[in-house]
Amino acid sequence: MPPATGGGLAESELRPRRGRCGPQAARAAGRDVAAEAVARSPKRPAWGSRRFEAVGWWALLALVTLLSFATRFHRLDEPPHICWDETHFGKMGSYYINRTFFFDVHPPLGKMLIGLAGYLSGYDGTFLFQKPGDKYEHHSYMGMRGFCAFLGSWLVPFAYLTVLDLSKSLSAALLTAALLTFDTGCLTLSQYILLDPILMFFIMAAMLSMVKYNSCADRPFSAPWWFWLSLTGVSLAGALGVKFVGLFIILQVGLNTIADLWYLFGDLSLSLVTVGKHLTARVLCLIVLPLALYTATFAVHFMVLSKSGPGDGFFSSAFQARLSGNNLHNASIPEHLAYGSVITVKNLRMAIGYLHSHRHLYPEGIGARQQQVTTYLHKDYNNLWIIKKHNTNSDPLDPSFPVEFVRHGDIIRLEHKETSRNLHSHYHEAPMTRKHYQVTGYGINGTGDSNDFWRIEVVNRKFGNRIKVLRSRIRFIHLVTGCVLGSSGKVLPKWGWEQLEVTCTPYLKETLNSIWNVEDHINPKLPNISLDVLQPSFPEILLESHMVMIRGNSGLKPKDNEFTSKPWHWPINYQGLRFSGVNDTDFRVYLLGNPVVWWLNLLSIALYLLSGSIIAVAMQRGARLPAEVAALAIMTPILWIRKPRNHEIKKLAPGHTARLSQVLLRGGGQVLLGWTLHYFPFFLMGRVLYFHHYFPAMLFSSMLTGILWDTLLRLCAWGLASWPLARGIHVAGILSLLLGTAYSFYLFHPLAYGMVGPLAQDPQSPMAGLRWLDSWDF
Q1: Cis previous bond, 79, omega within 30
Q2: What are phi and psi of 497, to 5 degrees?
Q3: How much of the chain exceeds pLDDT 90, in percent?
Q4: Mind listing the pLDDT tens digit for each residue in 454-503?
Q5: CB-hemisphere CA count at 13 Å for 476?
Q6: Three-state SS at 135
Q7: pTM value?
Q8: Contact 651/37 with Cβ under 8 angstroms?
Q9: Which of 201, 265, 267, 190 is nearest to 234 (CA)?
Q10: Are the C-beta atoms of residues 487 and 496 closer than 8 Å to each other?
C-alpha cells in the first residue's frame, strides 16, 4: 500500500502538490492547470466565471448537507419507546444528570454529551430506561435523539469534503455522499440515543482534518495549517473519549504523520531546525493536546459523578471512599482487624468484586453438592463474613473477652454471616477452571471440619504484624490442601446466577486474582479512624478506571438469545440487528445496510486491490497514461460547472499525466488504510461482537467506492471515445450509480424509518420480495 500521505498527486509534486485549504479545494486542480495553461495564453478566465464556480461548489455542499440532515431528522420521534441500546446509553445520560456514579466499558465523553443534550433539552433524568419497548410517555427524549442525529448528519458532508480533497473530483465526492446518505444502516444508527454517531463524527472529523492539513503542506505554520493540525488533535481526543475504537483513527493519523516527517527529513532544502519545528508542532497538536483533552474528560467525569451508584463495586475500596452516599465515604471504621469483626473481603483484581455466598447449592455433578461461594460486584448482605479463631466457637464480642487482633500468619475461619456456614475447600475440582479446587460453604452454625481452616498472610509483611483494613493486601492459604483462595474471573452459568467463580488454586504465585483486602469492618469493641486519608489521587483514579474498563471490555460475553455476529459477516451484510419490534403488530426497526451500497463497497475493495496493483506495477515500469485521461481527471471540477476551454486542455503541463493514477493510489490508499485499520482488528478480539461495530470501517469503504468508480469510469470513457462522448459516458455512469443508490434506498427505507404490518414473507408487506438473504430477519 502506498504511504499515507494524502493529496492524490504525482510523486514529483509531493510537497507543493497538496492543493489549497478552504473552499477552493473543489477546483484546486483545475486552477493548477489553468494557472499554467492560461499564463501562456492571451486569454484569461473571466472573474465572473470563477465566481460562478465558487457558487456552484458551495451550492453542491449545501445540497449534500441539507439532504443528509433531512434524512436523519425525518420521523426522528418514532418510535416513542426505547430501542435497543438506548436502554444503556439513555440510562447513563440520566446518571450524569443525577450525578450518580456508574460503570461502563467505554470512556465517558459520549455519555456525558448525551446527558448534557438531555439536560439542555429539558430532560430531568427520572426515566428508568429499564428495557427496550418501554414508552417514553411524558419524558423528554427528543433532545438526546436529536443530538445524536445532528452529529450523524455531519458524516455525509465530512466524507464529501474528504473525498473531494483526496481526489479533486466533484463526481467522486457526490457519489460518496450519496452512498452514505442513502445507506439505511448509517441512517438507523444516527437516529437513536447511541454512541455510534458520536464516535463516527469524531472519526470523520479527524480524517477530514488530517487531509486538510496535508493539503496545507505548501504553507507550513500558516494559520490554516495550525487550525487543521490542532483540529485533528481535538478530533482524536473526541474519538478516543467515546470508545477505545478511536485508537484505530489515532493509528492512521500516526502513520500519516510518520510518513510526512520522514519525507521532511529527506528534504535537503530544509534545515534540521525547520524539521525540528515540524516535529514539535505535531507532538504538541497530535499527542499533547489530545492527551490533555482526553484526561480533562475524565476529570469532568469524576467531578460530575460524585454520588454512590451501581458502579461502586467495580472499583477499589479507596476509590469508593470518595463517593458521597457510599458506606465508606466520610466513614470511620476500626483500623486493625480483630476476631469477631464482621467484614467484607474484596478482590484486588479490577471488576472481580466481593467474596460472596448464598443459600443455593452447587448442582449435581459439579463437585460436592455444598453451598456456592462466588464473587459479586455489588454491595449485598451476602458479602458479610465473621472472622473467627479456628479452634474455638466462643463469641469474641463477649465483653468479658479482651480484644484480640488478627495477625499475619494466624489460622482463622471465615463464617458466612447470613447462613452460618464456613468458607471451605477440598480436593474436588472447581466448576469452571481445571486443576483448581472447589470452594464452598460448609458446616452448621459455624461447626464444620478442618477443611474450613485458612492461614491469613499479608503480602510482603513479617509474621505477627497486625492486619490493616483497606490497606493490607492479604492472601488466604488453605491449611489442608495448601492452595490459595482466588477468583478466576470466569462467569458461572445460570445455576451460579452469572456471578464469578471462586477457586482455590494450587499455584502459589502471587497474582491479583488471589490477593484481597478487607473493606467493611464492624466491631463495636474497637475505636474508629477516618477514611479520608485513604482517598486516592487523580492519577490513581484515572489508572484504575482504565484497568476496570479494559477488563470489562475483554469480559463482555453474549447473553442468551442475543444476536451477535462474526467479523466476516459484516462486509457482506450477512445479518442485521433488530432495533425494535418482533411481531406484525409491533413497530419494527431493523439495522441493515443498504445491500446495493454494501455490495458495491465490497466489489470496490476487490477492484481497487486489483486495479491499484496493476497501475502501481505499470507506473513502476515507467508506463504513462494518455494525456487526455489525465486531462479529464484534472478538469473534473470544471466539467460539473461548464465546458472546459480548449486552451485549458491543450496547455496541460506534462507533469500532470500521472495525476489520475496518483489519485487512485494515494487517495484510494489512504481510505483503504482506514478501512483496514477499522475492520481487521476485530478478528483478534475475544469479546462479544455486533454488526454495528463495522460502521466506522463502512465509512471508509464508501469513500473508496466514490474514488474508485469515478476513476474507473474516466479510464473506460477515454479508452472508448473522444472528448465530448467520453465526457457524456463519465457523467452517465456517475448518474446511474447515484440513481441506483437512491432507488435502493426507496426500496429499503422502511427498515430504517420503521414499519407496522405483515412480515417480509407476506405479499402485503412493504418489504415483500426484498428479503434477499435468508439470514435477514425482518
Answers
A1: yes
A2: 60, 25
A3: 53
A4: 999 998 776 668 888 888 889 999 999 999 999 988 889 999 988 999 99
A5: 28
A6: strand
A7: 0.81
A8: yes
A9: 201
A10: no
